[in-house]
Model the fold of this input.
Amino acid sequence: MTNLSDLFPAGAGKQVSFTASGNVTSSGKPVILNSDGTVSEVSGSAAVVGSTTQLLATMQATPAISVIGGSQAVVMGDKYLGGGGGTTNSLEGFVLTGSGSTITKSSEQQLSGNTNYSLCSCYDSVNDKVVVAWMEFSNPNRNHKIAVGTVSGTGATASISWGATTDWASHTTYTSWDKIVYDPDTGNFCILYYNNTTYLLAHCGTVSGTSVTMGSTPVTVMSALVNWLGLAYDPDTQRMIMVYESGGTTYSRVATMTGANATASVTLGSQETAVSAAGEDLLPVYDPDNDKMCLVYRNQSDNTLKVTVGTVTGGGTNSITWASPVTVQDNSDAGAGTLGPTYDSVGADYDTNLNQIVVCWRQTGSPYYSYMQGVTITGTTPSAGDNTVVMSYNSQNKAIAYDSTLQKTFYAGSGNGDLTSLLMAPGSTNLTATNFLGISDAAISSAASGNITMKGGIASTGLSSLTPASDYYVQPDGTFSTSAGDPSVKAGKALSATAINLEYQS
Done:
């Protein structure tokens, strides 16, 4: 007998045969129990946060970002030059080209020479154009403008050719929070916007070449004070989802676009309650893996970050049914700080590689870092992954957009007076706090059966370099460590360099 593990047969009476879903690559691998009774090897990947690229040294307002394909995105930002409104600022665009986790930016591509707010943009995939809408602040007017951009080239030499600017709405009163979405099925885009005279409106139009033709009449979505709004497109039902907060309730409408150019119009479904509470930073995100519309928002009353999952009904109904909201980030997480009522502090998009919603947010307590986390949807239930620091300084106004070619998410955020960008991806794992089953006794091919040493037994096959008498934890990537991972899953205590007494847990 050379070590303590020789006292115990492998498994110590706790080996049970299971069918594998996916390959279990070798002995000594931690496995999870799936809902169908099969087992899978614990696997995952670490979060990715690429290097930061500064776009503007002086920045105000919230940036807009659109992925245009080919590992590229366009970011729009209002360059702050000092002073008040009028012609002191400029609206600048950048083409970002990604490679791995690195961004190369183009030079500044100016679109407007005035102070600009309410930036929003979308990508017209049919015409391969970027559509940018904004409110131009020029006393006493606050005119809504729109322009079409054509991107050429890549890397540092990429450029944007802007078409003529179109005035699509004119107001002398305060307007804000414009949102835009593109409908590839009709070839139209829709802008959801607010003003404090006629309140919440929707206006659609069509791109032709480098110009825009707006539909003749905007549609009134709600004739009341609106504080927050969001807009997204559901390609499965070919419907738009509008969300907005008014009077302490968060509402939604399903809508469609018909016609084109001057005849383009919006048809609204009935107003429905999405959340019976005041929501801020309303971010509807389509989940193509589950064909669901997910609403990411900050709950105003307790400053928690929540997600509710909606099922859209098309046809003549044009409705959406929302599940109960789930808290994915709360103030009890000391490492994350607190959320708090920070304007435009949350960004969200869907990562089709990891099958997760990517959520980015800023804590309001010192040191005001920005964080990223993944949220997985199972049925209509969200579950949150680990938090990862994205910006280690005050970066509050942000927008993010996922690129399926890079399998990364473009981040653009303003903070500390600048506008910066980077590429990121949340960590991913199939391990939860409760699904760890045991350790494999041998390799198991997918759909084949093999023995698993379960909790309460002794695993002594395929393990090495353990420190006797030390506690070991299963890590999200399927390794073992003497430090807890996230989630914290204790495997057991090492009896020798090659054996773990698996701790029984109910």
